[in-house]
Amino acid sequence: MSNEIVRASETAPPPPPEYPIDQVVFTPPIDIFETEEGLVLQADLPGVSSESLELQVQDNKLSLFGRVALPIPSEARLIHQEYQVGHFLRSFILSDEVDHERIAAKLNQGVLEVILPRLPKAEPRRIQIQVESKDG
């Protein structure tokens, strides 16, 4: 499988409309490694839950958007801040080698793992040759 099976997109997709951006948006760090079955993509998404994560594939583009809630209670007043919280947005262009129907994902303690399996190779098959009769 070539390194071109997954390529970071030139432009990030807009966030889904149900997630208005009211915070900073980060590009999460990503690790990609190859297995015999395909590729595995791992993204660090601290503070993102499965309910606040949008992961979709459309037109060979894999997009992820994770929303993080502010850890400060709404009735509190921020006096000093050194730790910045924000949403996560990243997209990748997938090659035609990825089997979109079998893509799977799991989120475990802020680490998203996306399995990008290869399409099965077509097996060679013998093609039957029809013979036309000349007396018809």
Please sum up the structure shown:
The chain has 136 residues and is an all-beta fold. The chain has no helices and 9 strands.
Please give a handful of descriptors for the protein shown:
single chain; 136 residues; mainly beta; Immunoglobulin-like; 5-stranded mixed beta sheet; 4-stranded antiparallel beta sheet; rod-shaped
Describe the structure.
With 136 residues, this protein is mainly beta. It has a domain at 24-68 and 84-120: Immunoglobulin-like. It is 0% helix and 38% strand. It has strands spanning 6-8, 24-26, 30-34, 38-44, 53-58, 61-66, 86-94, 104-108, 111-117. Strands 1, 2, 5, 6 and 7 form a 5-stranded mixed beta sheet that branches. A 4-stranded antiparallel beta sheet has the order 3-4-9-8, with no helix packed on it. It is rod-shaped and about 95 Å long.
* DSSP helix fraction: under 10%
- How many distinct helices? 0
H-E string:
EEEEEEEEE
Structural class, by secondary structure, is mainly beta
Which fold name corresponds to the CATH topology of the domain at 24-68 and 84-120? Immunoglobulin-like
**What is the CATH class designation of the domain at 24-68 and 84-120?**
Mainly Beta
Described by strand count, sense and barrel closure, the largest sheet is: 5 strands, mixed
Shape: rod-shaped
What is the mean predicted local confidence, pLDDT? 83
In the predicted model, the low-confidence regions spanning at least 5 consecutive residues are 1-5
Number of beta strands:
9
Q: Strand percentage, roughly?
A: 35-45%
Rg on CA atoms, Å:
22 Å
Distance between the termini: 51 Å
